[in-house]
Design a protein that fits this description.
110 residues; 0% strand; 69% helix
């Protein structure tokens, strides 16, 4: 039986924070203009995301990190190669689901 003490809470917080920070950099400084153009929007450097988007991104990152940690604990994933393999597999699955369901991506299945 899995208990909450079997889960690395430090790892969950670190993963959620890393996801939030990387997402923030990705969609602003690194690829913000290209992302806006790909969506058919004019890049607006003065535009600020709604607070709900910021809080929502942090919350969903935390939920995803928690779910991944529970899965890792249940599967007995305890070495870096195992974690990397599981992370790549789950990352592709999460990305596929997000891409297929994201209303910002026109015709995602084409």
């Amino acid at each position: 039986m899995l208990t909450l003490s079997d889960i690395s809470w430090t790892g969950i917080i670190a993963a959620a924070l890393a996801s939030f920070l990387l997402g923030g950099l990705w969609f602003t400084l690194l690829f913000g203009r290209a992302y806006a153009r790909a969506l058919g929007r004019a890049p607006d450097p003065k535009a600020r995301p709604a607070p709900l988007m910021i809080v929502g991104s942090a919350l969903w990152g935390l939920i995803t990190a928690f779910a991944t940690a529970v899965l890792m604990a249940r599967l007995g994933t305890d070495t870096p190669p195992e974690a990397l393999g599981l992370g790549l597999f789950l990352g592709c699955g999460y990305l596929a689901a997000n891409t297929g369901l994201n209303p910002n991506i026109p015709r995602p299945l084409l």
